[in-house]
Amino acid sequence: MHVLVSGAGIAGPTLAWFLAKAGIRSTVLEKASSLPAQGQNIDIQGSAVFVVEKMGVLDQIRQMNTKEQGTQFVDTNGKPYAQFLIGKDNTFSPTSEYEILRGDLATILYKATANNPLVEYRFGTTVRKVISNDEAGVEVELDDGKVEKYDLLVAADGQWSKIRTECFPKECVRVVDTGLYSAWWTLPRIPADNDLWNIYFGPNSKMMSMRPDPHGTTRAFVNCMPTAGTQTKIWQETSRSDRQTQQELIHKEFIDVGWQADRFLQGMTTAPDFYFQVVQQIKLSKWSISRVVCLGDAGYAPTPLTGMGTSLAINGAYVLAGELSKSQNTESVSTALLAYESKYRPFVEASQKIPPFVPGLFHPGTATKRWFLETFVWTVSKLVAAVKVVPWVGSKVNKPTAQDFPLPSYAAFD
């Protein structure tokens, strides 16, 4: 069996590692000419921690941790009014034990597979066209003009997957809009920056935050949840525009927000890694068509609101590779794809569920709602602090890291 994987982010290299473990050959295509930039914060949770431990890269992930010590909420003057610090006795903090930059994790996963004789990487290469896709295999034309045939094509090319768009009918794909818009970029670190995730609730449904990283810089991001129809239309149109137009809108909307808005906006114009995103979910009625299958964000992007994107990609790669490892021949690939979906879809659908008050609750549109939110966060922080100083109560509330998705056992990986 020979598998073609489109995308060398998180899901692609993880899949390649487990396919090689099962003795299956894979070719991983990446449209970028090199490994992705460091990017923004992601984290690994639950069962995905056990998967990366199986890969032998957990210690490397710990070493590349962002060194974030917890989360604090600040007012317009930068004064903290609520803190949630991480520690062995506290699992309430939004900061995860396994915080890492996306590019750093992708690099670790790439290096874990780059020298494996069963894995081939081709950077600066992508699928131009899927020529045929049936039970005999999938034939593709690459952007360098080569035509190649594989037993399976895996779309691991992100939320706006080109492979998915070409191979799946429109009626199979549902895009769920959360009404939220986000942008990320890197700022030069200054002496006043701390090692906490600092979050500021601004006026008019806006949020700003910054986080530490292990590279001596600071990661900034902003959110806006427009409520008026005209404003929403502007943000929607801007999301499809060029970088300059996107930055002009952010500058206009955030110039008077308060806190460190001036610093954010000044750094945005020169940041090498500015990224603008419409926060939307991807839901597919089926994950595979003949010999093309979706993995990670291409199949089930949950949005950063769930905090599950990275973990879903890692777990999904494990299950897909595991089911393929049971295939005795290329004819049984279809059976493996159906098993991958039937075993993993219930957990994905549960992970994609977002409470109806999210993200609106955390993007208050009025001063009154903002006051109530800040008061609520302050109250919760005090209750958490009380739990921390009462060991018995803490032992009843806090739970050790556990598998949220029961990982199937596969002989090839044992």
TrEMBL record:
GO terms for molecular function: FAD binding; oxidoreductase activity. The keyword Oxidoreductase applies. It holds the Pfam family FAD_binding_3. Keywords: FAD, Flavoprotein, Oxidoreductase. It comes from the Eukaryota. The keyword Flavoprotein applies. Signal peptide: none annotated. This is FAD-binding domain-containing protein.
